[in-house]
Request: fold
Amino acid sequence: MTNMVESLNNMLVNARDFPYVALLDVIQEKMSKWWNDRRIIAMAITAPLTSSWESEFRPCFAQSNGQHILQLNPVTYHVKGSELEGVVDIFNKTYTCKEFDIDKLLCVHAIAAVHHAQVSVYNLVSPYYTKEYYVLAYSETIYPVGSQSQ
Reply:
């Protein structure tokens, strides 16, 4: 089983024998709590990216300092590091390592090129990693269904 299924299974261990409607109420209550907890966490973030992505992103800034950068045109850079080298296209958000292309997060080489171009790295990251999208994801409220008589 996956971690999510195991987590739900553990959450419902005491409610398994409840009638279906009562079981659904337990699920709704727990989902509402999780949703609200995540909304509170999202609204407390002070950085442009979500906390987990910001902490993954930060070490790349330090590593980007030692890169050799050659500007090929206004938006394209040849970046050479100690282990890898390739071409970063800031306009198309691509890099020959494909990390920038696939993850939509900037790799060390892309960060070096973006700094050289004096562009904010946060403008090039996928919006799905931002605080704004995280807050939007949990902006709705999960309401109770109510009793069967209503």
User: Anything to note?
Assistant: The chain has a mean pLDDT of 86. The first helix runs from residue 3 to 11.
